[in-house]
Predict the structure of GntR family transcriptional regulator.
Amino acid sequence: MDHHGGRPRAERARQLADVLRQQITDGAFADGTLPDERDLGRRFGASRNAVREALALLREEGLITRRRGVGTTVLLPKYGHGLDRLTGLAEELTGRGTVTNEVRVAAEVPALPAAIAARLEVPAGAGGVYVERLRWLDGLPLSLDTSYLTAGIGRAVLAGDLRGRDVFRLIEEAAGVPLGRAEVAVHAVNADPGTARLLGIEPGAAVFALERLTRLADGRPVDTESIRIRADRMTLRATLGRGGPRTT
Amino acid sequence: MDHHGGRPRAERARQLADVLRQQITDGAFADGTLPDERDLGRRFGASRNAVREALALLREEGLITRRRGVGTTVLLPKYGHGLDRLTGLAEELTGRGTVTNEVRVAAEVPALPAAIAARLEVPAGAGGVYVERLRWLDGLPLSLDTSYLTAGIGRAVLAGDLRGRDVFRLIEEAAGVPLGRAEVAVHAVNADPGTARLLGIEPGAAVFALERLTRLADGRPVDTESIRIRADRMTLRATLGRGGPRTT
């Protein structure tokens, strides 16, 4: 990147890290091994030190590991999760990995918290169902999913196979119709110690925090979720069109 | 949350923090002040200690501040950025905040890095344009945007008002047609020290890292970006439908 020769090395390293991250998540290094420092430097017209600093950034992010004699390898494949249609995790990753669920809580709630009742558009004090699952992908923790469900559908979900299946499918079976749409808000936060322990990451590591409100086909809310996702294992993807009205 | 009475306080605190975060980002506390601890405890059926721990989590995230005698207030409004259609930042925030841009680099690049040339689908060794802008919203840093553009359009963008306008609009004016679509990948990472300094946050704070490849209406790539966004100031939002084929 000779056009940035006059810039601080840290900035050139960041730029190089950006390009490498994009290549890694696109699967450009098919066998999971990155070229050596000299080769990367040549490819990017960057100094050996800038290359080293870029690789240090990616190692900090948990994306790569560097071992003497072995070189630089991609630590974990990053799975893409589409943000352009509503899918459950297992459904989304069909054929790409095996999802299992550790059911931590699955219980009826006599009275939903007021904010949750409002979000689900049920009367204050209404009962519901709470489900908390730690989700594993190929034997490593991927996400911690917590759901509050409306009472009727929720009870049917409790009777379903929460260990083996996506909640969305269980809802659809209970409702007898496909889900409608969901509103999703994506945050990035530093993992609190409790969440970090469950997800097998360092406290403070960046994680996605998703809030998702899912509606039945007739528009009634049925499921409000908070989801923590390991950001070193998952990328959220979308394809955006320029024209047309917003879908909300 | 009496249905979780038997669970560790840290877990009840996390749950409470999830609900509060959702309310805060939805603007539920119109004057920016949260109810006091006692009131929150009553609302959620949670102990005073669990409430305190939940508020501590949200303070760690940079979402709220707590001051003796003043109480708990929302630190910064979190802006929503839609992930369901392709918009520039200023365009997206029209009427909600004032975007200004600090142009850090805006220059022709004699030869694009090989990975960038491949992504832009131009021949190896082709020239292009590099633009780096620190974007401010209402007087505080919001994001660091870096773009590689193809040569022809890029030169026209260099001649445009990069301080005052979205690059998308400048591209469209140069091309004479609206943009087509963009592929976006969203990561969450811990800010490296250099990025943290530019964005005015602590090193290690969780930030969004977006990669976006934007195409002209005829499908040709024109702009490949890496964007770091302060996650304490922005939430990414989408509405997802259940049915229909993926749009890619």
Strands of chain A lie at 64-67, 71-74, 79-82, 99-109, 128-137, 140-150, 179-190, 206-216, 221-230, 234-241.
